[in-house]
Predict the 3D structure of the following.
Amino acid sequence: MIRVKEVKSVRDFIKFVNAEYEIKKDDKNFVPPLFIERFITLRWSAFLKHGKAKFFIAEDEKNKTLGRISAQIDFLYTEKEKTGFFGFFECVNSQEVANSLFQKAEDFLRSEGMEKIRGPFSFNINGESGLLVDGFGTPPFVMMPHNPPYYAELIENYGFKKAKDLFAWEINREDVEKKTSSLLKLIWKESGDKIKVKEITKKTLKEDIKIAIEIFNDAWSENWGFIPITYEEGQDIANSLKLVLDSKIAFFALIEDEPAGVCIAVPNINEVLKNTKGGKNPLELIKILLNLKKIKSIRLLILGVKKKFRKDYPYLPLFMVGELIKRGKERGYEKAELSWTLEDNERINKIIKISGGRIYKVYRVYEKEL
């Protein structure tokens, strides 16, 4: 017998978070996220100031967790269309369990007047997005999802269809240097003293994140599924970056002292989380902290240019990529993931391809009429 209940108590939330660890424990490429960060995100995310969410757990008759799901509404998005989201989906390989979870999510969204369901998102497209459908052979990078291959079948069998694919690109430092060295020399010569670089530091992080969000919201405003990041969400981001921020690989490109572009890459903390249990005890947390300096890969989270600078400085994204390569080399990083990009964002995908990147993981966003 399957029972699906709404998550309400602290004990329920702990069980909800633990479901991911239990269901994926035998997946060799699963990287346990930091438990405390997951718990805080679910309970006190700034998303909840402009949205609402319900959380559900599926259990058997012995109270064993079989799956989980969230259903959420972002009021910043429903101004455009009556679409609700689902996320935090985890499930044993059972269509019956999956169907019961999707039904609960749909019932809630339908009761709120939604006409479509889309996901998975945690909580919206600015969080962990998409379902892994290609590239299961390697662990995910920091703040990227990972799931068993059968999840796609569970979702599609329920009636969900593809809405959009998201690409994760792999870049090795040596490959990038070979492919871009000549081009970058021309760009640096062309830019001269017109472009300056300002690092994002832990000391100025809260203010810097505010500026980064302004650039992001301007640069991404016309992209599919866009939802602006709020100031409060920006502070959530700042808090999550404090642990791993490396100022050398997070910076602004300034033109006449105005922030025109932003490049934020972070060390791939998943390298040190891989063989842990999510830092559930103090000794494990200490071990994680001690190993942070051993990280050799990074994830490029944000690369964006304000619209008003794109015409006169079309090379600015490549300038920032070049700066990232140079700075990453100085710090000893060997490879990077650039993620994610929309499958039909031809301009940025072309820039990454020119830079030596290759698509090595594909994440799918699904949707369904209610």
